């Protein structure tokens, strides 16, 4: 059984399509939506859409754009308005984790933003130290965020396509009656 949040998110995707994926990934990028099942929702959407490029490319683009917009919003909020995201209960990232992210940024520079966005669990965390402790411009941060998010969502797309093809193969073996009942 899926949770209430996941069920609601799937219903929103069913109604609003890629726009719902954009919102979920924007919230995840803004560090607020870490409680939303963005990965699961994306894979489920790809499975539901099928493996045709015309069906999955808008979902891919919405996820990458949403994550980039969300992370850029955190970057701007920290840089221009001196917001500390760790003060908000909705942001499940502690100051200790941000210190680790800052050390990573100090060691590797702007490419660390792209790499961290490609790794589940660290996505978006470098927005705060990059805004606080570097001279990186907003557009350069957004470009690095976009590259990492595209790699991350591309990997999720590959998982979704593999699952979709796997389900199709299994359902084909079971028979048409079961497929018709789904």
TrEMBL record:
Looking at the UniProt record for this protein, which Gene Ontology cellular component terms does it annotate, in alphabetical order? plasma membrane
Query: What protein is this chain from?
Result: Membrane-associated protein
The primary location reported for this protein is membrane
Q: Does the keyword Membrane apply?
A: yes
- Superkingdom of origin: Archaea
Q: How does it sit in the membrane?
A: Multi-pass membrane protein
User: What does the UniProt entry say about where the protein is found?
Assistant: Cell membrane
Q: Which positions, given as ranges, span the membrane?
A: 12-33, 40-65, 150-174
Q: Which UniProt keywords apply?
A: Cell membrane, Membrane, Transmembrane, Transmembrane helix
């Amino acid at each position: 059984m899926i949770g209430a949040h996941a069920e609601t998110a799937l219903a929103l995707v069913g109604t609003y399509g890629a726009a719902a994926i954009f919102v979920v990934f924007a919230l995840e990028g803004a560090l607020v939506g870490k409680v939303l099942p963005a990965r699961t929702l994306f894979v489920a959407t790809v499975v539901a859409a099928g493996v045709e490029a015309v069906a999955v490319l808008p979902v891919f683009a919405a996820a990458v754009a949403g994550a980039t917009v969300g992370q850029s919003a955190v970057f701007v909020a920290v840089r221009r308005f001196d917001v500390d995201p760790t003060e908000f209960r909705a942001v499940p990232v502690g100051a200790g984790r941000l210190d680790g992210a800052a050390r990573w940024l100090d060691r590797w520079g702007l490419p660390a933003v792209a790499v961290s966005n490609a790794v589940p669990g660290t996505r978006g965390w470098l927005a705060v130290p990059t805004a606080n402790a570097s001279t990186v411009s907003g557009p350069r941060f957004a470009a690095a965020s976009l590259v990492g998010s595209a790699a991350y969502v591309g990997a999720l797309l590959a998982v979704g396509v593999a699952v979709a093809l796997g389900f199709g193969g299994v359902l084909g073996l079971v028979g048409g009656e079961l497929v018709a009942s789904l």
